[in-house]
Structures are given as structure tokens and as C-alpha cells.
Design a protein that fits this description.
Layout: E1 2-3, E2 17-20, H1 24-32, E3 37-39, E4 45-47, E5 59-62, E6 73-74, H2 76-90, E7 94-102, E8 110-117, H3 121-130, H4 136-140, E9 146-151, E10 164-168, E11 173-177, H5 183-199, E12 203-205, E13 207-214, E14 217-224, H6 231-236, E15 243-246, E16 250-252, E17 258-259, E18 264-268, H7 278-284, E19 290-292, E20 295-296, E21 302-303, E22 314-318, E23 336-341, E24 350-353, H8 356-364, E25 366-368, E26 381-383, H9 396-408, E27 412-417, E28 420-421, E29 431-432, H10 435-447, E30 451-454, E31 461-465, H11 477-483, H12 487-506, H13 513-516
């Protein structure tokens, strides 16, 4: 539906022309005209972008009170300067507006809007898949709470890589300059939504959610982890005919109530195959899916294992194309939380965290970086509070709020290693934690069949027995290191982890002493 601006359809910018809420078919038609879009063997579109990961170094909160935020900021005056630059540019451009909701629960359904250059219509199509739809009547009077204004082709001179993601939390507007990576649209809205959730007494979790049936009851699990740690894989793998609820962001509220955010999934595709991840694989083959930076040959044949372009290939898939998807509105509360850590040495496949120790490991947010965070993070040991790089306030707030919520509505919390034991999985003596190992752990957690004992080095509980895992090396790495004559190496790693973790927690001003003293 293309028309000029009317009194009932006001925007914070004045484009040359506007296409208001095009249909999915219209957006697909616009995107197919992009020179960097190709049809695949599945009949969907695959777009090769110039930017292949999110631009963390170019992301700034607009504020004159930088002490209220843990991440980098720009002044309000500088934000206004860049906003004017973008507004003037948009006057010369054809734009697309996509409206919808973050979340589908009537109690917390947030109206959101994307305004983007028509020349990058694939981003509009992908975002439309992830928004919960508004009715025709709702669109007539739609007033967004959150707005993303997106100009992929306008350089932000003077900023890192001439890119800028400027976040105006006071007015709930995010402005994106010079990145054609879809993640900036998706995270632009969700970053601002994080603040709304916190103000309502909850905590936004960078988390998947799934429901696992056990003896006639549904066990609800949340899975937090940085991109590339296996969050999506863990969410979508099957245990007892489990159902995925949400892939990337959930709100955990007082009482354990969970709100969903997205009507689809932005999934990593590298290594995707029908045996290990059939649900995602088949959804990516739907004609309506959008692929981004996935390798394909001249005939449109997709290769999910080719890294010659980028290992950060992605796909946006619709929940309606995901077999067995479960509506979050049916959830009552969370039963357990999994904290994923792609570690490569002494973290077991699973450990149980109790009391403030659970909030401490949540706050540590440890993992090994992947291409999803850009080349600067790939392969490096990272700590990101809550595994949530999109929380726009002071990070200590995350740990404190999580501790409050756990006390208010207790749930079991587990640390899961999705990497390897004793090395990177390639060196002699090391062992990769495979999808089937993690799946056995999740199944056993849901069913309550793991036997535990206290680990004297870290204070958490380690498993003595997990049905489906016969190799004890995955459960108690210390015994593996001892058997291999590497106990000195193990002890040195224990000392380093404990010292580093304590120092890391102490650096967050305002973090609860219960959390700081838990390690």
C-alpha cells in the first residue's frame, strides 16, 4: 500500500515517498529487485550484505548522563546532529514502513515500527516476519512505542567503520546508519524493549524458551546464551516431543511469568543439517524464509558448510513454519534456566547452580566468542553480563534483578558447556560436547534424573550420572585431567577462573554483595 503522508499517518521523518505496511508478497517483490538478492533452490531469497555482523563498536546510547549506562554513549547534542543528517537524507529517499508488535500477550504487547530505505526491502520483509501482526483496524490508528529509523546507505562519518547505531531511550527511537545487516533492525527494537521490561519490574533475557512434556505436565525452560553458543539449537532440538516457544528474547517477570517477543526466528545457518537440527533446516527451506549471507552456487544450491564468504550466515523463519511451535500466552511460569557457556577446558557438560551462585554465573555471562559478534570477538574468551549485550542500562541492574526474581519465584538453574572438554575438540585428548550430549542433559534436567555431588573447586553441583551420557569425562572434567596426567593444568585453571571471576564481579558498581561473594 503506497501513498503520500496523510494527517492520520505521521512520521518523525519526511521521506520522498512512503510504502505503508506492504504485504509480505509486495516486500518480497521489492527485495527481489535488489542487485545483491538471489533466488535459492527453495524459492526464497538470499541476500549478500556488505556488513555481516552487528556493529557493537558503532553502537551508542544518547544521553547527557553516561553514568546511567554501562556501554558507550554520545551526548544529546551529538545525537540531534546525526538525527538531522539522517532526516535530511530521508527527504530524498523512498522509504518503507512496517508496523507490528513485539510480543503477543494482551498484557504486554508493544507497538513497534521500522522505517527503512526501500532499496533494502529484505530487512523490511525479515522484520515483518518477526513482528506479531497488527489487524487492519489497528493499523489505521497505529501509534508505535518503539521506532527504528534505518538508512543502510547513509554513512556516519567520524564513527567506527562509518556506521552508527544511535539509541535514544528517552524517546524510544533507534537510528541506524550505514549497516545493511538485518540484526540491527531486530536488536534495535529489542534493545529499547529491554528498558520497558525493566521498568515493569521484570528482566529481559537474551533467551530461548521451550516446553518439554514430562509425565503429563509441561516443564518450561529458558535458555540464555550469547549468539553462537547454541541457544537456538538447544531451543529447537527435541526432547520428549518438546515444543519451541521463543528463540531469542523473553521477559521474565515477577512470579515467573514469561512474555515472548517475536513471531519468528533469526537463526544461524552455518553447519545446518536435517539430522541435527531438522526443525530449523526445514523452516529455512520454506519459500517465505529470508536467507542472509548464506553460500549458494550459480544454480541456487545452498551450502550451509561453506565459510568462504562468512560463517555468520543467517535466516529469518516464521513461527508458523516451525513444526510444533508453542504459544507463549499458554505459559504459566519458568521451571528451569540454562546458562550456556561455549567453554574449551574444565567446565562440565552440566552443573547445577544454587542460591546467589546462580545469579553470579548469570552475571558472569561467560563464553567463547563467535563470528556473530564480529571478527573482534570470534575465538576470544568473553564475559557479557546476563549474556545480554543489548541491555541498555547499568549492567549491575541485571544481576540484582535476576537475584530478586529468583527469590520471588524460585527455579532450577544450570550451567551448560556447549563447547568441549580438555581442549578445543581438535587437540589430542579433548572431547567435543555434541548436540546429542546437550540434548541428553536437557532431557534429564526436565525429567529430574541427574544424580549430583558437590564440586569442591567451584561450589556448584556436578553430575555423577546423566542418562544418555556414558562417558564420565563430560560430567567431571577434573577426573579426565587427572587420568591424562594434566592435574597441574587443571588446578591452574581453577585458580585463574576463581580469581578472574571474583575480580569481574567486583568491578560492577552497585552489584549485590550476595552475588559478589558467591564465587
Amino acid at each position: 500500500m503506497t501513498d503520500l503522508l496523510t494527517p492520520t499517518k505521521q512520521l518523525p521523518v519526511q521521506p520522498k515517498s512512503v510504502s505503508w505496511n506492504p504485504t509480505a508478497a509486495e516486500l518480497r517483490s521489492y527485495a527481489s529487485e535488489m542487485p545483491n538478492a538471489r533466488a535459492t533452490e527453495f524459492g526464497n531469497l538470499n541476500v549478500a550484505t556488505k556488513v555481516v555482523s552487528r556493529s557493537k563498536g558503532s553502537t551508542f546510547i544518547a544521553t547527557d548522563n553516561p553514568e546511567q549506562h554501562s556501554d558507550q554513549t554520545i551526548s544529546r547534542a551529538e545525537y540531534d546532529r546525526m538525527a538531522k543528517l539522517q532526516n535530511d537524507y530521508i527527504k530524498t529517499r523512498d522509504m518503507v514502513v512496517v508496523d507490528g508488535f513485539i510480543g503477543n500477550d494482551p498484557e504486554f504487547r508493544v507497538p513497534a515500527r521500522l522505517i527503512i530505505e526501500k532499496a533494502n526491502a529484505n530487512i523490511a520483509g525479515m522484520q515483518q516476519h518477526l513482528y506479531y501482526p497488527a489487524t487492519a483496524e489497528e493499523l489505521e490508528t497505529f501509534e508505535p512505542v518503539l521506532t527504528v529509523i534505518y538508512t543502510p546507505n547513509l554513512k556516519a562519518e567520524g564513527y567506527p567503520d562509518e556506521r552508527l547505531i544511535a539509541v535514544d531511550l528517552e524517546n524510544y527511537i533507534t537510528r541506524v546508519f550505514h549497516s545493511d545487516y538485518f540484526g540491527e533492525s531486530k536488536k534495535g527494537g529489542l534493545r529499547m524493549w529491554n528498558k520497558l521490561v525493566y521498568e515493569r519490574g521484570g528482566l529481559a533475557l537474551h533467551a530461548g524458551c521451550k516446553v518439554i512434556p514430562v509425565d503429563g505436565t509441561d516443564r518450561v525452560g529458558l535458555i540464555v546464551g550469547l549468539s553462537g553458543t547454541g541457544k537456538t539449537t538447544t531451543t529447537f532440538t527435541k526432547q520428549n516431543d518438546s515444543s519451541p516457544v521463543q528463540d531469542d528474547f523473553c521477559a521474565l517477570m515477577p512470579g515467573g511469568k514469561i512474555y515472548a517477543t517475536e513471531n519468528g526466528c533469526f537463526a544461524k545457518t552455518f553447519g545446518l543439517n536435517p539430522n541435527d537440527e531438522p526443525t530449523i533446516f526445514h523452516a529455512c527451506a520454506a519459500p517465505e524464509a529470508y536467507l542472509e549471507n548464506v553460500s549458494q552456487n550459480g544454480e541456487g544450491k545452498i551450502d550451509y558448510f561453506d565459510t568462504s564468504y562468512t560463517p555468520n550466515g543467517r535466516a529469518v523463519i516464521r513461527m508458523e513454519d516451525i513444526a510444533g511451535a508453542y504459544d507463549a500466552q499458554r505459559l504459566k511460569k519458568a521451571d528451569f534456566l540454562l546458562i550456556l557457556n561455549r567453554n574449551e577446558n574444565i567446565i562440565p557438560a552440566v552443573a547445577k547452580l544454587e542460591g546467589p551462585l546462580a545469579a553470579a554465573y548469570f552475571m558472569l555471562g561467560e563464553t567463547k566468542g563467535t563470528s556473530a559478534g564480529g571478527a573482534a570477538e570470534a575465538g576470544k574468551s568473553l564475559r557479557v553480563p546476563g549474556t545480554n549485550p543489548f541491555f541498555p542500562l547499568v549492567h549491575a541492574y541485571q544481576g540484582n534483578r535476576m537475584l530478586e526474581l529468583m527469590k520471588d519465584s524460585p527455579m532450577d538453574v544450570y550451567l551448560m558447556n556447549t563447547g568441549s572438554i580438555g581442549g578445543d575438540g581438535k587437540q589430542e585428548g579433548s572431547k567435543k560436547v555434541k548436540i546429542q550430549h546437550s540434548s541428553a542433559v536437557v532431557k534429564a534436567i526436565a525429567e529430574g534424573t541427574i544424580q549430583w555431588e558437590k564440586d569442591p573447586d567451584f561450589g556448584y553441583l556436578v553430575a555423577t550420572e546423566v542418562p544418555g551420557i556414558d562417558d564420565a569425562d563430560y560430567l567431571q572434567p577434573k577426573k579426565m585431567y587427572e587420568r591424562q596426567g594434566r592435574l597441574d593444568e587443571y588446578n591452574a585453571l581453577v585458580a585463574k577462573y576463581n580469581d578472574d571471576r571474583r575480580a569481574y564481579l567486583r568491578k560492577w558498581k552497585g552489584l549485590s554483595e550476595e552475588i559478589v561473594n558467591a564465587i
